[in-house]
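User: I'll paste a sequence; please echo it back and then give the predicted structure.

Assistant: Echoing your sequence first, then the prediction.
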Amino acid sequence: MQIKPVTEQHLPEYAEVIRQSFATVVRDFGITRETWPDYTAFLTDEQLRGKFQPGYYPFGCFVDGKIVGFAALSSQSGGVFEMVNVAVLPEYRHMKCGKALLNFCKEEVTRRGGRKIEISIIEDNTRAKNWYAVHGFVHTGTKRYDGVSFLIGHMEWEQHVLS
């Protein structure tokens, strides 16, 4: 298993990883294009291509040369990064790919002088919420967004510097 940056050249492959990964959430929570048209599972290649701008850092988890996982960091202000589209193909879950991506992103934020990672999840997705909590993320609140039928939970990880 290897975590490394991906480029637009990899886009069709990692876009499919994102869609297949989030398809399980669609199934588990009954999300449809009608109830949440902008949900991650429905992102098009073109929408993902539009994210390639300064401050956007996408990474793939490769197994035997195949992209099986994905995560991206987006630089915000004040040393804060948003982590988005964390995805692992269902057949590669429980093989530590997600943990490797998460740890890589933490290291990347630190390397880039950042101090915090923020994420958003479906609040009722206790499996995801608990997984992130085990990996050092703290729940910071919830919010309702227009056009989204679910309560969105917010979590963050903050680098602790020993003095």
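The radius of gyration is 15 Å. The longest helix spans residues 11-29.
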